[in-house]
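Justification of computing resources. Each target in the renewal requires a structure prediction run like the one illustrated here; the chain below, 309 residues long, is used simply to show the kind of job we budget for.
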Amino acid sequence: MTVRNPRTRLFAAGAVLATGSLLLTACGSSGSSSPSGAASPSGSVQAVTADASLAALVPADVKSSGKLVVAVDASYAPNEFKDDKGNIVGMDVDLANAVAKKLGLTADVQNSPFTAIIPGISAKKFQLGMSSFTDTKEREQTVDMVTYFTAGTSSAVKKGNPEKVSADDLCGKKIAVQTGTTQADAIKDTINPACAKAGKATVPNDGDKFDLQTDVTTALVSGRDQVMMADSPVIDYAIKQTNGQLEKLGGTTDSAPYGVVVAKGSDLTKAVQGAIQALIADGTYKSILSKWGVEAGAVDKSVINGATS
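Resulting structure tokens:
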């Protein structure tokens, strides 16, 4: 659901593939399990105890309810998705549960379409959004973002790259992306204008867009599309879960922070930031990331509104 200094990279044929502020990590979508069924997390997460000083920062109305209502878009494995039993699981889910416990609360994790989460925060339907949101200045205009992870944009093709797709030239290729992600925006706003300027064919339909990230993966596996683009941990996980049917195309570009979404100006923002920092300090954070195999995205410090673009 990647990075902040706008920059570009030349295509082999002279077009430009932007890997800057638009090719950023984004987020999941709702309602489906991982492509091949259950996840295969390894390791366990230590018990989390409440921190009285952090719990004191929780607004009275939230404290009285005893819970944090957390929205996720549960088809973005391994960050948030449904297992074979229909339970919402994943890295973000474990972190949400740990943050809630650190604040003396219980997490009520609810599935939601990705594009409905920020409006739901503003409407007070949810208190937190933890769904692989990239922290951007645009999002910070309407909500607060508490950073907790770093990811980049990656792409995948079918195993062996039978259509010989080049990571340096995606012009004219059929690309599957999830609706509402920054990868989808990048095709429309950056890649296709660059292809047109270079006199090359554009990506059809500004990319084939799907509400569910699992459907993005299926589109590539089935051959409907030639490439899929998503956040780096999602691409890595899809490659593992499709049993060798896919492979990574090129490297990971433009790392950027994920942020927990909180209502703008809420006292809860500082409580969440403090809870994440405490989880980093006591080792719980690292154990959660290790459980889901996403240690590469670990950060040392959580900040409020840390976007650079």
